[in-house]
Amino acid sequence: MTVNGITYSEHLTRNEVIKMIGEAPVIRVENENCDYTNRVMDTDEYVEFSATIDFINKDKENCTLAAYYYQLDEDVENNELDQLEWKVDHYVILY
Hints:
The protein has three helices and six strands. The chain is an alpha+beta fold.
């Protein structure tokens, strides 16, 4: 998918990303702090967060790897963020 000249991958699993770009960028993005995306969700039940890193792909192009997380809105409102269980839902590569 291309939006405003930026090409986005489909939602990818951890294993798919590792096969495409290697494990090092995946570990880096998983160790980054995530933040609210402020994206309007289809449901008010979840809040979306993401973390991103820049990397150079095998074709020597600058790319970005994003990891997306979802938390229940109720949990976000009633707990400190560091008390929540953070698990990556999916990854996206921006070319």
